[in-house]
Write a structure and sequence with these properties.
The protein is of the alpha+beta class and about 240 residues long. It is built from eight helices and five strands, in the order ααααααβββαββα. It is about 50% helix and about 10% strand.
Length: about 240
């Protein structure tokens, strides 16, 4: 049977895509506090056509955050203007300077550093956050490294198993990020892919996934401990089907 090709509505920006995507992500121009929680919105809309979705979006979408506001064609246009300003005034000059200074030795050193040094730093950071932090705070929880075979292994670093062994084990997930990955972790926003991965984990193990920010191996967003405590209590009182 011939597989039916799905029509795509996304525009192709060619070689421009990389710089547009980099700048948009770097300056958080497509985050929920700018364009709303788009995947949640479209699922609420359940559109049959792209015209249905566009019309519904501009009638109902608001930004996600304390100072939320209604999203309009003009507000999206303003984001596009800001994107152009960031590219032309910041990104291009920075990249041009980097291109002029880049050497072969930089490239060789970078690959070695990325593969060896940064991997080891991340490994030690993860161990410290879990073994010296979470495991001592929650001694009744069994923490295990995510198995490569786990469907969510790319997004979940550790599983925290709660309660006695059952037909379906209950666990919450932990993803560990260095604080340097986000200078203000309060504004950190998941990609749509990661949201889907986290939701899938919850379906499999019952528990939420928590992002723990690490600073030199210590838990930086300490309020996450209270959230994990509540999740452990909740998991302790449920039985997965």
């Amino acid at each position: 049977m011939t597989k039916q090709e799905t029509k795509r509505y996304s525009s192709d920006f060619g070689k421009k895509e990389k710089v547009l995507n980099y700048t948009c992500q770097t300056y958080q121009l497509s985050r929920p506090n700018k364009v709303g929680t788009v995947m949640a919105l479209i699922r609420e809309c359940q559109p049959r056509t792209i015209e249905d979705w566009e019309s519904w979006y501009f009638k109902n979408a608001v930004t996600d955050g304390k100072a939320s506001y209604k999203i309009t064609q003009e507000s999206l246009r303003e984001l596009g203007v800001r994107l152009h300003e960031k590219i032309t005034q910041v990104v291009i000059p920075e990249w041009q300077e980097a291109f002029q200074q880049l050497t072969l030795e930089d490239c060789i050193s970078y690959i070695h550093n990325l593969t060896i040094n940064r991997t080891y730093d991340g490994y030690i950071r993860e161990k410290s956050v879990v073994n010296d932090g979470l495991a001592k705070i929650f001694p009744n929880v069994l923490f295990e490294e995510s198995s490569p075979e786990l469907d969510h292994a790319g997004d979940i670093d550790y599983l925290g198993y709660v309660g006695e062994s059952e037909r379906r084990p209950k666990a919450f997930g932990i993803q560990i990020k260095p604080i340097t990955a986000k200078s203000n972790f309060g504004n950190y926003s998941l990609s749509e892919r990661m949201k889907a991965s986290f939701d899938s984990f919850t379906e499999d193990f019952g528990g939420r996934v928590f992002i723990v920010f690490s600073n030199d191996g210590e838990i930086w967003n300490t309020k996450i401990v209270d959230e994990i405590t509540k999740e452990i209590d909740r998991l302790s009182n449920i039985i997965l089907p």
